[in-house]
Amino acid sequence: MKAILFKQHGDISNLSTGELESPSPGPGQVQVRVHTAALNRLDLWVLQGWKGLDLNLPHIPGADGAGEIAALGTCVEGLSVGERVVINPNLSCGRCRACLAGQDNMCRDWHLLGETVRGTCAEYVCVPAKNVLPLPNSTSFREAAAASLVFLTAWHSLITRARLQPGEKVLLIGASGGVNTAGIQIAKLAGAKVYVIGSSAEKLELAASLGADVLINRTEDESWAKLVYQLTDKQGVDVVVDNVGAATFPSSLRALRKGGRLLTVGNTSGPALEIDNRFIFGKHLSILGSTMGTSEDFYQVMQLLFQGELEAVLDTQFPLEQAQQAFTRLADGQQLGKITLEIP
Length: 344
Ligand code: ZN
Description:
- By secondary structure, the protein is of the alpha/beta class.
- The chain folds into two domains: 2-149 and 293-342, Quinone Oxidoreductase, Chain A, domain 1 (Alpha-Beta Complex); 163-289, NAD(P)-binding Rossmann-like Domain (Rossmann fold).
- 28% of the residues lie in helices and 26% in strands.
- Strands 3, 4, 5, 8, 9, 16 and 17 form a seven-stranded mixed sheet that branches. A six-stranded parallel sheet has the order 12-11-10-13-14-15, with helices on both faces. Strands 1-2 form a two-stranded antiparallel ribbon.
- Helix 7 (249-255) links the parallel strand 13 (237-242) and strand 14.
- Helix 3 (141-161) crosses helix 4 and helix 6 runs parallel beside helix 7.
- The radius of gyration is 20 Å and the shape is globular.
- Bound molecules: zinc ion.
- Residues 92-93, 95-96, 98-99, 107-109 line the site of zinc ion (ZN).
């Protein structure tokens, strides 16, 4: 089968389109003929590699994918060859305490497609049957692939972890990335007032088109925490979603109201943080960590996508052969929404 692969860690020049043997579905698995894959920042980090990451090289990146079931392993019921599906990239054992409690994203043997196992940037991928969800005809492969991981991640953080309520104020740091464009829509659907901090007028325009109520351009006003405080009658917001980490954490703590919740969902600016603890106890703040989501979250948020309540935000689509161009666009960070790969 054709696949995007890399034989050693490093920069984007290590990516190529090559041929690998198609994987066969094991017991309880389905083989999906991927029609569209979508890219995530994670794919760049995996390509770069980190200490302790031990991959079976060559590796195939890609967490997101949608396509048709091409073959069924033994003991698979309720699915058929030719069925259109979207893939939930969170792989869990199904037997441990967390899995049995419905918290499969905390599985003790948790993996993500394209991270520690071969991913979706290929003609075929095999996943457990519980990791595919049938697609209605009204949802395209491209929309489904573009939505899966980012909507799951945003839903789990805002709804399952932060328990966002109607009328609450939520601040998202970032306007145009996959998780934030999903988060804006989910927060609006939950009845919240949405504040967005973006780095350009174009990115903020996209956020506004998705329903964001208050737009803050951080290139015009670096002291955005103070601005948020002023814009909320000197109260602060109920929830901040921070995926930047070191560079924004102090401002995020400042922007929260007393009793507010800080959702930390990533650290693109680095993992080591300095925290002024007076904010946390003095303002009764809660810091909530969140990553990925559960099977239940995936089911819920995908139903809303299928019903048209939520919408995948699409940037450029590239053919599989142009993987390097696609990854370069991802690395540049200028995309508005999701970059997808077509695998015809
Ligand atoms: Zn488990």
